[in-house]
Structures are given as C-alpha cells and as structure tokens.
Specification:
This protein is about 20% helix and about 40% strand. It is built from 12 helices and 29 strands. The strands form 5 sheets. It has a 16-stranded antiparallel β-sheet. Strands 4, 5, 6 and 7 form a 4-stranded mixed β-sheet that branches. Strands 1-3-2 form a 3-stranded mixed β-sheet, with helices on one face. Strand 16 and strand 17 form a beta hairpin. It is extended, with a radius of gyration of 34 Å. It starts with 10 loop residues before the first helix and ends with a strand.
C-alpha cells in the first residue's frame, strides 16, 4: 500500500488511506464494550474528548476562578523573581481549597509554603511568603539574595577519585535549604556502591560569602576499607538426594575477590531460591551468614535446604468461557501432570495469557497435597482467568475538504471462535463514495510477532475526473524482525491482492487511455517498514517512519493489467523544545506497465489535496487531458516540510503551522521530468487525544500548470504526515 493520499497502491488502497483520518478518530473508543452488545451510556468519542477534556476543563477553570477570586486574581507583592503564573500554579490546590465555601486560613498557609518551596528550589533559601486573608488574598514575598554553590570541598579519607565524588555531589548551580542533606545522601550511596560499606559522610559545613550570595560546602568523608569477598561456602542439605544440584547452585555464587555491594548477600540468595523454585522445590530455604575475618574482607556462607519437589497432579481452569479449549491448552504447555511444578513454567503460563491482550487477569494457584512415598508433593494447580470484553462497535465521523462529511461503523470481535482470531466488518461512507470491508486476522498461530490476515472489500467512489468501483480480496502476512529489541522494530509484509475493477464516467479524455474500463489486477507485494513515531502515529513529536515496497500485478496470476511497482517513503519528527515540532516527509512511487502500453486511469498516480501538495485541490497536480481534467501518471514524488508552533504554555493543544510542499507527477515510468508543483502556506491545529483538527491555506508560488488555481484551502481531521 502506498503512502496516504499518494495513490501509490490500487484504488482500494488509496481510498482506505484517505479514510484513515476519519477512521482513526474513534479507533478503539467503542460505544459498545460488552459481550452481549448491550449499549453503554457513553458519549460519542469526539464529543467525549472535546467536551470532557476541553470544554469541561475550561468551564471548571472559570468556575474556580469566579469562586476563588484568587487562583487567577490573587495579589502578589514584593519580590517576584519567578513568574507569577508559576507561583500560582504551585499553590493551585490550596488556593482552590481556600476558595471553597468551607475554606480555612490554613489553606493560605499551605499556599504560602508551596510558593516558598518553589522559590527555595530556584536558589532563594531565605525566601519568605506571608499570606494576608481576603477576597482575593494577598501574598507578600521577600526572597533575599539568590545563593550560588561556589564549590564543594572534600576532606578526609575520600576512597574514590575526586572527579567521581564531584560528579556525585553535583546538584545544580543554585543552593537550596536541602542541598547539604542531598549531597550527603548521594555521596554515601556512591561510596557504598563502590564497596565502602562502612563509609561515613558528615553533614556538610556551610561557608558563606560576606554578601551571602555564595556558599561553599565542606564535606568530611571517612570512606573506610573497600570490602571484597574473601571466601564463599555453600552448605546443601541432603546433597546426596539431589545429584548435580550443588554444581548448579555454586555457579550462581559470587566469586572470591569480587567487590561486595550493600545488597550482594540478598541478591545471591534470591538467585539460589529462584533456581530451586524452577526445579520444583517450592519450600526451599536459603540462609546467609557473614563474617569479617580481616579489615576489608567478608566471608559468606549460604545454608540451602531444598525441601521436597512439588509435582503437577492436575490442572483445572476457572474462567475463560469464551476461549476454546485448544487456545487455553497451548498456553498451559509447561504445566504437565507428573512433571515438576516449575516457577518458570508458572510465570510463562501467566505471560502467555496476558500477552494476548484478551485476558484481564491470569493467576496460577498451586495447592499442595500429602507427600507421596518418594517424598514428592503433588499439587492441584488451578488457573483462574478473567477475560477482557472483546466485542465492540466503533463509530467514526470526520470531515475532509474533498470528501466533505465522512463516517463509518465497524464491528470488531477480538476473540472470534474463542481462538484469538480478530474479525472486523465495517461500512464507511462519504459524499463521494462508500466502502464495505471485512478482515480476519490470526495473530497467535504463527508465533510471536507474526500475523496472517485475510481481507475483502467492495467500494464505489467518485474521483475528480472519473468514477471507480472495485471488489477485492487479499492475503497479508506480517512478521516483526528483531522482536524484543525495543519499541521500534522492522516489519516485513509479503502479501497478495486480487481486484476486479471498473472505471466509468471518465471525463479525462486521453487517446492513450486503454479501451478496457473493466479489468483485473492480481498484485504480489513485499513491503519492509520501521515505525518509531511517538507518542502516537497521527501527530508524533519524535521518531521516524521508513518504508520500501515492491509490487507486481502479474498476468499468470489472473491480471488483465500487468505492471511492476516500486515505492519508498520516509518521514521524521523532531521536537527541540516543548513549543516546537518539526516534521519532514518524502515519498515516491513508480509503475512500469508490462504488456499493456498504458494503465487504466484507476491505476494511475495522482497528487494534490490535504495530504500531499496542499496548494492544489484533490488530484489537480500533474498531467491533464485536452479538456483540462486530471489524467494522472506513472511516477509521482512528494516532499513536505512543516513546523508546528505551540506558543501557549498552558494550551499546548493549540498549534500554528508553516509548511512547504513539493510534488511531481510524470506520465512516464521512472521519470520525473514534468513540472513540479509547490505549496507554501500556514495553518491552525487543535490537537486532541484522538487526532488533530487541521486547517491549512496554501499558495503555489509558481505560475501553476494551467489549472487556473494557485491556492487551496483544506479543512481535515488528522495531520498530513
């Protein structure tokens, strides 16, 4: 599938891409969330977000200000080195409490202390804030001098290089009332972490300058010896009953000569207990004894009593009524009757259930029975499951400059047939067309990070220069590469899609247009992509998206229109400051016909619109027929550069944008020799948790390509990148 609005895939792919903005509005924010599909009293997601998080919040602010007469109108007099709004923000909670009918004078004391603490953190340790009751109240601020830490001087037995101590003591340039205690705590921690377990750090002595604007901290240290492990001993009870166990336990011990850390004994004991639990010794005990034979040396002795082995007698499942027995059994593979009850198997079982996202809770509860003749203890294992609601209906509504009003409804079952299969059936419509689609995805049968999806769709759509209808079915497999290497990963997506299509009401008259308006495509695709955009993909503040794809609509697979396709896309976002986000995007696609000399208009590439070059209306950039209608081409390329400004610190959801777009559509494959269209413009954004509302105005600084339009206005939901 090509980039959104770039028409680098089939007509079906392009339509689905354009609908992404509308669909994303309520993805996962369903109006129904129960198994029986009984309606839940919830507001529409867009109204819910805009109303609850926007209007209601602002209304609450207004009410609090009117009631308090202080949160926004409290009078601050005296020194104000910190911005007034910052001090009021620190004291917002006690000021709101004071504004209530039952407000007390102690609330003003709390507000004064909150402001004083903020001044203290800014380097004014002698600051005072005095409250005077009233409506609004008055706060008299006396800051005193701002104090800088001149230096930190170390004396005594340091134990560590001076540079390491200075790095540990560094806490900023300004002195606070808690600076001395914080320096002492950090120094003691770094010394103990280096093996100086008996380190003593005195309370820093303060040496002030005459004007009390600078202070030097003198810290007396007594690091003491650096402790190392001189010897370690393991005592295993009933060692003859457990052949090979001693060797496995001794491999987990720290080696003599290693530096001893404050929690080394408990860490080693936890490792020993963990191994014993994994071997089924659920009653294992580990005791640690320490001895200091000489200064700087410690001997440790671990007494291990494994206890009996617990074995699985039977496994019962409580809950999971919607899940098929086989689906549950595959996640209980480590709990086999007759085998040792391993803690690792229990943990793997719980993880296997919770990682599906289909279960709200998964617990494994062993119950020990009477010991058997061989000394083992049989356990009845009960697995308690609580499933998530997996059936819901999503509603979507939105607006686009070309499509006008658009919306859709989608039924989703995340656990159909109780096998973890995800089934969706949706209907989407706008003023220029409609689409019905279904999909069935299997995210679990092929291993972690692998998914197989079967899709089908039917759509009818009116484009600017023709109409199009299409029925399609596709099979897509996706696999994540380097699973578990972080939030960003590479994903490979091979797939096949067969489509029967028809172009009609064609207004773009082209002698080279194929005579067939009814045709089929059968496309084999391979895509490789990596997405690290965050915190979300619709309006990211950071991260990149990289994609490269190859496709072939092949006559041997039933296509009457054959061509090869290659495409690539890269976009990135960067936020150097909370009030600024920069984004850049580039994408290109080409289609090279095979036996046919030209492609039907429904398989050509177009640019122009709110997601590509914004100074052109939908599909208006590129070659045109003799009557001026868009013809499309075989190669397209687009680049976008945008800066989004958030000038209001308390309203980061409101943004101003400036952007520059550049694009070209060429009638030949592997060619970009046609004139390039550009767009320079500005816009407004209102960011919501489900996507931004976006208005853009763009102008083409060149003469245009004969369309007679050099500007365009776009109102949509969703960013272009």
């Amino acid at each position: 599938m090509g980039p959104r609005g770039h028409r680098a895939g089939s007509r079906h792919h392009r339509q689905r891409g354009r609908a992404d903005h509308a669909r994303i509005i309520t993805r996962g924010a369903a109006l129904w969330r129960t198994r029986s599909l009984r309606p839940v009293q919830r507001r529409h997601p867009v109204a819910h977000v805009l109303g609850r998080r926007g209007t209601m919040r602002n209304l609450l602010y207004v009410v609090l200000i009117l009631l308090a007469g202080c949160a926004g109108n409290a009078r601050l007099t005296g020194d104000q080195p910190v911005a007034r709004r910052e001090l009021l923000r620190e004291a917002a909670r006690p000021l709101q409490a004071y504004a209530a009918p039952d407000g007390r004078p102690s609330d003003l004391v709390d507000a004064s202390e909150a402001m004083r603490a903020r001044l203290d953190r800014e380097g004014y340790p002698a600051a005072t804030v005095t409250a005077q009751a009233g409506r609004p109240p008055t706060f008299v601020i006396t800051t005193g001098p701002r104090v800088r830490i001149a230096e930190v001087v170390f004396t005594g037995d340091l134990g560590l290089p001076l540079a390491e101590l200075e790095a540990a003591a560094a806490s900023g340039a300004w002195f606070t009332s808690t600076a001395g205690g914080a320096v002492r705590t950090r120094l003691r921690s770094v010394l103990r972490a280096a093996g100086h377990l008996d380190a003593v750090v005195e309370v820093p002595r303060e040496e002030w300058s005459e004007d009390r604007t600078r202070v030097a901290l003198h810290v007396a240290l007594q690091a003491g010896p650096r402790f190392v492990l001189s010897a370690v001993q393991l005592d295993l009870a009933d060692a003859e009953r457990w052949p090979g166990m001693r060797e496995r336990l001794e491999a987990l011990l720290d080696q003599p000569g290693s530096v001893l850390l404050p929690r080394s004994p408990s860490i080693v004991a936890a490792r020993l207990r963990g191994l014993l639990f994994d071997l089924g010794h659920r009653e294992a005990e580990v005791e640690v004894a320490q001895r200091r034979p000489a200064p700087g040396e410690i001997e440790m002795r671990f007494a291990v009593r494994p206890g009996p082995v617990h074995v699985v007698r039977s496994v019962t499942v409580d809950g999971g009524r919607r899940s098929a027995p086989g689906f549950i059994a595959r996640r209980l593979e480590g709990l086999v009757p007759g085998q040792a009850l391993s803690q690792a198997a229990i943990d793997a079982c719980v993880t296997a259930f919770l990682s599906t996202g289909l279960f709200r809770r998964a617990e494994v509860l062993p119950s020990a029975g009477l010991p058997l003749s061989d000394g083992s203890v049989p356990d009845e294992v009960q697995v308690r499951l609580r499933e998530q609601p997996t059936q819901h209906i999503d509603l979507a509504v939105g607006y686009g400059t070309y499509e006008r009003v658009r919306g859709g409804v989608t039924y989703v079952d995340e656990h159909i047939l109780g096998r973890g299969l995800r089934f969706t059936a949706g209907l989407e419509a706008s003023t220029v067309g409609w689409e019905a689609n279904t999909s069935l995805a299997d995210p679990f049968s092929f291993g972690p990070g692998r998914r197989l999806t079967l899709e089908s769709a039917y759509l009818e759509r009116q484009e600017p220069s023709y109409a199009h209808r299409e029925a399609s079915v596709g099979l897509l497999f996706s696999r994540r590469l380097r699973e578990g290497q972080g939030p960003a990963f590479w994903e490979v997506r091979p797939g096949h899609r067969f489509a029967r299509q028809e172009d009609y009401h064609i207004e773009a008259i082209d002698p080279a247009q194929p005579s067939k308006t009814l045709y089929t495509t059968s496309t084999v695709r391979l895509d490789l992509r990596r997405d690290s955009r965050r915190p979300r993909v619709i309006d990211p503040d950071a991260g990149t998206l990289a994609r490269i794809g190859l496709g072939w609509s092949a006559a041997p697979l039933g296509a009457t229109v054959d061509y090869a396709e290659a495409g690539a896309e890269w976009s990135g976002a960067w936020s150097p400051a909370p009030w600024l986000v920069g984004t850049v995007r580039g994408a290109a696609t080409t289609r090279d016909p095979g036996v046919v000399t030209s492609l039907p208009i429904g398989e050509r590439l177009f640019l122009g619109g709110s997601d590509t070059v914004r100074s052109y209306s939908q599909d208006e950039l590129g070659p045109r027929a003799a009557n001026g209608e868009p013809l499309g081409g075989l190669t397209s390329a687009v680049a976008n550069l945008e800066l989004r400004w958030r000038p209001f610190a308390e309203h980061r959801q409101l943004e101003f944008a400036t952007f520059y777009d550049l694009g070209c559509v060429d009638p030949e494959a592997w060619s970009l020799g046609e004139a390039w269209g550009a767009g320079v413009g500005a816009g407004l954004r209102y960011r919501t948790p489900v996507g931004p509302i976006r208005f853009d105005a763009a102008l083409d600084p060149a003469e245009g390509d004969g369309s007679g339009r050099r500007y365009a206005l776009n109102l949509t939901v969703g960013f272009a990148f």
